[in-house]
Specification:
The protein is of the alpha/beta class and 314 residues long. It folds into two domains: 156 residues; 132 residues, Glutaredoxin (3-Layer(aba) Sandwich), CATH 3.40.30. It has 17 helices and seven strands. The N terminus is likely disordered.
Length: 314
């Protein structure tokens, strides 16, 4: 999702250029820049919008800022909820009021994209395909940004056919034999956290991992960290990364099976990835740990579990 925001910003004329050409009031330009860059908290973002609006920011610019805010936070449900605003603005869009779009087609492509996301939220695949295809047609340059949702749809379809074998041989952090059945015991479900010691994001998110595992453990769920590289070097690197908090949390660590990798059957191509697996081996979620859909799926198994505050750049 974040790629979409970056793509849009690269396609668009920058606010500073617009200021020089169109000459908005001096006080407005810094307010616009803050509105588009504010990511500290929802409260600070709303405060930035209020300030920009008071200084004369257009409804179009505010809509664009809200769009990028939700894109960066991977909040598909919030994007879908914005659809009425996008449809209302479609007929009155003015390129000169835009802060991020270089041409009208780029804006229309995003309207189609939001419609596609809204269709996904309703599980209307025919409508999703229709709108995402139109978004590609209107703005091919943004194709790489639209593609992840197609990949998500195909991944979900593939996961419906997968059944995880809890007896698959694995190795623990000391190199000894183990398996998911032994590690999970009578837990209601297991979250497989696919990890690489050479991933900066995995390293940076260690505190979030500890907090998530602690919260889920209170509600009958286990987190098992799967190192995707099965060699001894990956084991050694992982041991070196575990700080005091991670060690104290007594997290379970295993290396993937070299002959029948879980990462392959679960289509893990990048890390970190979390896969929620029910007791019967069915996949309830497969995706990035920051996705809202993970906690929606967890809520169906452990309704009282609450998402811990994010402590990293996720």
């Amino acid at each position: 999702m974040k790629a979409l925001a970056l793509t849009l910003l690269l396609l668009a004329p920058c606010p500073a250029q617009q200021s020089a050409e169109e000459g908005p009031p001096d006080a407005l330009q810094p307010a616009l820049e803050r509105m588009f860059s504010e990511r500290e908290s929802p409260e600070q973002f709303e405060k930035a919008i209020t300030t920009a609006r008071a200084l004369g920011a257009s409804d179009q610019a505010i809509l664009e800022a809200r769009f990028l805010w939700h894109v960066d936070r991977r909040e598909d449900a919030a994007l879908a909820a914005m659809l009425p605003d996008f449809l209302a603005q479609r007929g009155t869009f003015k390129l000169e009021d835009s802060e991020i779009f270089a041409v009208r087609e780029d804006w229309l492509a995003v309207v189609e994209y939001v419609q596609a996301i809204a269709a996904l939220e309703k599980d209307d695949r025919a409508a999703f395909k229709r709108h995402i295809t139109e978004a590609f047609w209107l703005s091919p340059r943004q194709g790489a940004a639209f593609a992840p949702h197609i990949e998500r749809l195909r991944l979900d379809d593939a996961m419906r056919k997968v059944k995880v074998d809890f007896s698959l041989p694995l190795r623990d952090l000391s190199g000894g034999p183990t398996d998911l059945a032994k590690l999970t015991g009578d837990a209601n479900a297991v979250v497989l956290h696919f990890f690489s010691p050479w991933s900066r994001e995995c390293e940076a998110s260690m505190a979030d991992l500890v907090a998530t595992a602690g919260e889920l453990g209170k509600h009958g769920l286990r987190v098992v960290n799967v190192i995707i590289e099965p060699g001894p070097e990956a084991l050694e690197e992982t041991r070196g990364l575990l700080d005091e908090a991670a060690a104290a949390a007594r997290l379970d660590w295993v290396t993937d099976n070299g002959k029948l990798p879980l990462s392959r059957s679960l289509r893990v191509q990048n890390v970190p990835v979390m896969v929620l697996v029910t007791r019967d081996g069915r996949v309830a979620f497969n995706g990035h740990p920051a996705e809202d859909a993970l906690w929606q799926a967890l809520g169906r198994i452990a309704p009282e579990a609450r998402r811990p505050p994010v402590s990293t750049g996720h």
